[in-house]
Amino acid sequence: MSHARSQHPNAVLTPKGRKKMVDCVLRRRWTIEATAERFQVDAKTVTKWRNRFLAEGVAGLQDRSSRPHRSPNKTPEAQCQRVIELRKKRRWGAEHIGHEVRLAPSTVQSILTRAGLGRLDRGDRATASEPVHRYQRDRPGELVHVDVKKLAGIPDGGGWRIHGRLDGPDHTGAGYRYIHSVIDDRTRVAYSEILDDEKGHTAAGFWRRAHAWFAAMGITIERVLSDNGACYRSNAWRSALEDTGVVHKRTRPYRPQTNGKIERFHRILLEEWAYIRDWHSETERHLAYDGFLHFYNHHRSHGALGWATPIETLNRFLGDNVPGGHI
């Protein structure tokens, strides 16, 4: 049994069996062909083990790695490290990383698996079990998506990720922050703010700032899609939409996937900004937010955009005639 457990996976014989085979040739003077027939192997196999025994003795009959001495097509180590770096830093999937480093997704996945990074936490994917039906509007501003993501605050000195969990769910007393976001359906250009609540007047003020920001980018918003949250049913929100001349549409109840683009944007925020490192204060995390939004809009490629960035996609639609030049 011990031989069976330690035997090389490609070996026909154990080292002990190879010794018997070699003895038949060298001591008993059997022919190569007869020995091969006796041990039910190819004549080349008998010759190989005989020659190894003559050159190295019994040690030459031991198992060896089947890995080739040279691998001309092996992915360069620097490229492998880049794959690992992107996984750890950005938490991207194999397809996205493959686009960035010019490797097949299967190759990227193999590199990640060898590095122990083959699986990612699924995050907040409430609709992962349902089939995805993708759609995309024809022009920027035809439809934008709006939503709020609730996020636990971080006390000075760091939260439970640094110090561990204590008794209560909110033992830090840091409260919550609310990420209000708007994303354009066609280009994925996004505007977002971290605010203190999700009340109607807060959402209305955010909408006015977002609307002005999109207008400065050259995008005229026609319709906005939201869920049925209280802030989007408020009089303040209704007045803000009337003031900006935008039609309001709501998702069907209990169907958050209808607003899937904003849900996906918020998941990107969680995976690539909020939980990408252990923050030591809410101020530290907040200061990093503007930088991440710039990265998202200007430098983060999207598979749904043909691996272009949101700003590149917007520039193409505007014919590069963005106010003030390229964004």
Can you walk through the features of this model?
By secondary structure, this protein is an alpha/beta fold. 43% of the residues lie in helices and 10% in strands. It has 13 helices and 5 strands. It has a 5-stranded mixed β-sheet with strand order 3-2-1-4-5, sandwiched between helices. Helix 10 links the parallel strand 4 and strand 5 (247-250). The longest helix is centred in the middle third of the chain and has 17 residues, at 200-216. It is elongated, with a radius of gyration of 31 Å. The N and C termini lie far apart (69 Å). The model is unreliable at 1-6, 122-133, 159-172 and 321-326 (pLDDT under 50).
Helix content: 40-55%
Mean pLDDT level: 82
Structural class: alpha/beta
Number of helices: 13
Radius of gyration: 31 Å
Order of helices and strands: HHHHHHHEHEEHEHEHHH
CATH topology of the largest domain: Nucleotidyltransferase, domain 5
Task: Walk across the major sheet and give the strand order.
Answer: 3-2-1-4-5
- CATH homologous superfamily identity of the largest domain: Ribonuclease H-like superfamily/Ribonuclease H
Which consecutive residue ranges, at least 5 long each, have pLDDT under 50? 1-6, 122-133, 159-172, 321-326
| Domain module count | 3
CATH architecture of the largest domain: 2-Layer Sandwich
